[in-house]
Design goal:
about 20% helix; about 35% strand; alpha+beta; Beta-Lactamase; five-stranded antiparallel β-sheet; about 120 residues
């Protein structure tokens, strides 16, 4: 099995950019999610060009500071968890990964305690 084959049908959008913001990978869900903006043709484009202000400035600050950003959105009746985080290779900053996962509008929350 190809090492990354699992991600193609993963039920969430996975978009990866390099340290300069160039989109280097998108799984099938990501390409479909961003079809109106070019879909898989966005590979090779800069992620900053895909965001209007003020999101562009926030993303630039996240990338420069290598900070994780997590939030939820609701669009067209669907709620999504957006998780944007830096990735590293051998301890060196490689860029950013964005995971977009559809979640229920109402979702249980559990507080676990250590034993």
């Amino acid at each position: 099995m190809d090492r990354h084959a699992w991600i193609e049908e993963f039920p969430g959008a996975v978009t990866v950019c390099d340290e300069n913001g160039t989109i280097i990978e998108m799984n099938g869900r990501s390409a479909r999610t961003f079809a109106g903006d070019g879909g898989a043709a966005l590979i090779g484009k800069n992620v900053l060009d895909c965001h209007p202000e003020p999101a562009r400035t926030k993303l630039t600050e996240m990338m420069d500071g290598r900070r994780t950003n997590v939030y939820t959105i609701e669009k067209n009746g669907a709620k999504k968890l957006i998780y944007q985080a830096p990735w590293f290779r051998d301890g060196k900053y490689g860029g950013f990964v964005e995971l977009s996962l559809e979640v229920p509008l109402e979702m249980p929350h559990f507080v676990r305690t250590s034993r």
